[in-house]
Amino acid sequence: MNHVVELAPSELNDWLDAILDSRSYAPKNFNWLGLAEILARRALETGALQWAHLAIKVYEYIARSADKDERDSLLCSEMRVRVHFIKRFGLSKEDSLLDINTIASWFMENTDCSLVSVRLSA
């Protein structure tokens, strides 16, 4: 994984795209969660959207094949990155990372409360 985390964002994006498009393969037993966490930390420390986009891409990739509990945890981590960057840069429909609808949809899909019951209890 050392080689991968040393890549520039554009190179890492190309590497990820090749894997996602089945044009290449990751090394056997590749630590995808470790990569996602490294990228998320790098994004948060630098404030760079390019690292955040890469972290989100990896979290989403892992979540596709995860069981429900692991998927919930991965998506929660993804949403934390999104919220951090929305707080930093504001909302933007032009950038999927900064689009509040992604977070709102995720929240509504993962809550047991309806909007009506929330309004009634407020």
Automatic annotation (TrEMBL):
Protein name as catalogued: Uncharacterized protein
Organism: Methylocaldum marinum
Top-level taxonomy: Bacteria, Pseudomonadati, Pseudomonadota, Gammaproteobacteria, Methylococcales
